[in-house]
Amino acid sequence: MSVVPAEVLPGSALAVEETVRGEAELGPRARLWPSLAAVYRAQLSRARVARIPLLFVATFQSVGIMVLMRGVVDGGAEAQAVVAGSSVLVVAFVALNLLAQYFGQLRASGGLDHYATLPVPPAAVVLGAAGAYASFTVPGTVVTAVFGCVLFGLPLAHLWVLVAVIPLAGAALAGLGAAFGLLAPRPELATVLGQLGMSAALLLGVLPADRMPEAVRFLRDLLPSTYGVEAFARTFGPHPDWAFVLGDLAVCGVVGVVSLAVATWAYRRAAVR
Prior knowledge:
Layout: H1 13-26, H2 32-69, H3 76-108, H4 111-116, H5 122-135, H6 137-152, H7 162-183, H8 187-206, H9 214-222, H10 225-234, H11 242-271
Helix pairs in contact: 2-3, 2-5, 2-6, 3-5, 3-6, 3-7, 3-8, 3-10, 5-7, 5-11, 7-8, 7-10, 7-11, 10-11
């Protein structure tokens, strides 16, 4: 009778442990930044053709709102609010409305199962998709801002602040849109939530704040895009208070981190169901 070591038995715990270790060595977990770049490129190439007409609609919508408001607003702080709000509205239309629809449809069609089988961190999926959708807002936002400044006679000197406003406001709104799409039980509800969010950005962001009731101003302060609008509007003055501009951008950035974290949690919750 021969004695066989326990570690070579097929059903032993040691053999299973060694097999698991071997599989872990063969399939290491993907890192966040390379995965994020891969998802971003894939989403950018996928949405390039399908989203360009919608981006044109978003830009045309914002330009049309400014033309209508030109009849009731002459200049000053009200014109600054209209131009800043219309510019950020392009970001809200794409990053909030379209992203809510995308993740809602992705969840309903079982597309999340595809990402769940890939060695990609959940944060990379959310951030990659949000970054790709936010990238489409850059041309429309710049065109809207330039057109609005010319229409209302505002200075063009500080339009460079859009370099900070677009990604920070886009991150806050994209995280919110992704959370809407991932938490909504049905894609139709995700579309409704995205539309309501964009309508809130339109009504509370474009209209001058000093003409709103106190309760509406409180709701306006809860909207993430408000701080991007305020930061951009402050730069139209002859002597912008850059401390307040940086403060608004900081708040927008903090809200963006929180909303993207919530969207990542919502993705994990939806992917395991």
